[in-house]
Amino acid sequence: MASTNDLKNGMVLKLDGDQLWSVVEFQHVKPGKGPAFVRTKLKHVLSGKVVDKTFNAGTKVDTATIDRRDMQFSYMDGDYFVFMDMQTYDQLMVSRAAVGDAANFLIEGFTASVAQHEGEVLYVELPAAVELTIEHTDPGVQGDRSTGGTKPAKLETGHEIQVPLFVTTGEKIKVDTRTSAYLGRVNS
């Protein structure tokens, strides 16, 4: 239990039964008339839905303990991703639903942050950018600008993104894991 006066960005609250909400931002408001209150923006941990919620100042709220650990992706086992804790060498099977869009950028050996609550995996978070090799892309034709100077490219994970015309098959590139955007070539 904590008070709304103790809220911090990133803190996870247990509201509306057992739903987990992360504090995105908060503001203490002391109006000229009436009692003080705390205006918050909360993000649902599982669905990503963002809502605004107001609490009276000093109200008690349930906090949840989220265990975030850096784990290494080992391999796929059917529909499950197997991660290994690098400290204990324990293996953890994570469902495709919990991995979400991070699956588009995972290759063996990548390190990801795995968040758990009471033994249940909530989500898998990758760094903002990762380096991947282009498995296949058509050659860019000079003068072909009808597509804005980009072409589709298939990454080694099987995910397809848009890259500039000068990028070729076999090149290593940097990709934004949040937007699937091409960020640049990686110099070897």
Q: pLDDT below 50 for ≥5 consecutive residues: which ranges?
A: none
Backbone shape:
globular
Amino-to-carboxy terminus distance? 51 Å
Order of helices and strands: EEEEEEEEEHEEEEEEE
Round the mean pLDDT to the nearest integer and report it: 85
Rg, rounded, reads 22 Å
* Number of helical regions: 1
Strand content: over 45%
Tell me about the largest β-sheet. Answer: 6 strands, antiparallel
Class by alpha and beta content: mainly beta
Pfam families: EFP, EFP_N, Elong-fact-P_C
Subcellular location: Cytoplasm
Organism: Streptomyces polychromogenes
Protein name: Elongation factor P
Textual characterization of the structure:
By secondary structure, this protein is mostly beta strands. Helix content is 2%, strand content 53%. It contains one helix and 16 strands.
Question: How would you sum up this structure in a few lines?
Answer:
The chain has 188 residues and is mainly beta. It has one helix at 96-99, and strands spanning 2-3, 12-15, 19-29, 37-44, 50-56, 60-63, 67-77, 80-85, 91-95, 111-117, 120-125, 129-137, 150-155, 160-164, 172-176, 182-185. The strands form three sheets. It has a six-stranded antiparallel beta sheet, with no helix packed on it. The protein has a five-stranded antiparallel beta sheet with strand order 9-8-7-10-11. A five-stranded antiparallel beta sheet has the order 14-13-12-15-16, with no helix packed on it.
